[in-house]
Fold this sequence. Notes:
The structure is a homodimer.
Chain A: H1 2-32, E1 38-43, H2 51-57, H3 77-86, E2 91-96, H4 102-113, E3 117-122, H5 124-127, H6 134-139, E4 143-146, E5 156-160, E6 164-168, H7 174-179, E7 182-187, H8 190-206
Parallel strand pairs in A: 2-3, 3-4
Antiparallel strand pairs in A: 1-7, 2-5, 5-6, 6-7
Amino acid sequence: GGGMWAAGAQRRAALALAAAGLALALALAAWRRRRPVREVLFFPSRPSCIEALLAEAAGPGAAARPCPCPLPRGDCSLSRLLRRLLSARRSLELCLFAFSSPQLGRAVQLLHRRGVRVRVVTDAQYMGLQGSQIGLLRHAGIQVRHDQESGYMHHKFAIVDRRMLITGSLNWTTQAIQNNRENVLVVEDAEYVKPFLDEFERIWEEYNPINYRFF
Amino acid sequence: GGGMWAAGAQRRAALALAAAGLALALALAAWRRRRPVREVLFFPSRPSCIEALLAEAAGPGAAARPCPCPLPRGDCSLSRLLRRLLSARRSLELCLFAFSSPQLGRAVQLLHRRGVRVRVVTDAQYMGLQGSQIGLLRHAGIQVRHDQESGYMHHKFAIVDRRMLITGSLNWTTQAIQNNRENVLVVEDAEYVKPFLDEFERIWEEYNPINYRFF
């Protein structure tokens, strides 16, 4: 009678508690998983001094001498973009139509010296223009490949540690950073990062120098 | 003794069941909420005939005559981009450095005729070049505003019904669509859409003709 009923109720209560516990644990796990970075940067960026940022990224050995330049130190779109790039620990893929910003060039060279595997794909027509950073990057030992097509390699994206995509309208030029209306998205969702990684690898293989034709 | 224990167990079971039910309901609600669109399109797009797509979007009155052109009809990056644009029901904001693709121009005019509120912001330098669609859009009665700055209005984004962002490296030109390496992201996450909407409204106000200066 009562005892058996109580035993059944006990079992049901235990089951229900287990179900509630499981549901709660699943909800907590989803909640706790680090939120992916989602950021939008607009340009033009106001001018700012990035020396402290680069010195900090160069490591504890490179204590920053205070920079004597008169530019403000605060947060801006360029400093935010730099911070995202300088967070790279293992790899950096760059797929850039135009790359002539000395500030971004220094950041990429710094990452290369720090042991980050840097690979660059760029547009052949733009690469040779005065002020391009491509020659300096190659000189520093960074791998660069370029197209041999009539169309432009017009992408402007970077992938940090195979998990963070940085993409938008911004060419990596001082003109674009300081004067143009531009946007940059920072994205960690794999749904976006994966296709861009695949696109990079596809282009990287296609632009392999063994495929170059000399007319 | 037994009776009271059974009543306590019953209460505990009911509570646990209620908790489990609530947790389950919350999980289901989150699951059911329509997943936001997340799409990546790469270009160049292979050529394809878009007549059927435009006829379909023009409404049931406009039965499609089969197009006699020899282009394939299948799915491609351009047709996917067009489908997203043609899904607009209420509003379309365009913020485009260059707009000369006749196909995209026809799609925008179709939306305007369908009663969608279309607003265009573009770059003054590019606007006047031969082949630009801007004059045709204005002629059709679509509102267009442009910059008066030395820097470029270099954005290339569209916002559909204030909830879908379409952005990337792609200028809306036939050259870019057919020959360049380009990317376009389709995004429904409010975290990305909202800042772009704000940027559009900011630029729209700033480029108000009452602010134009004539030197």
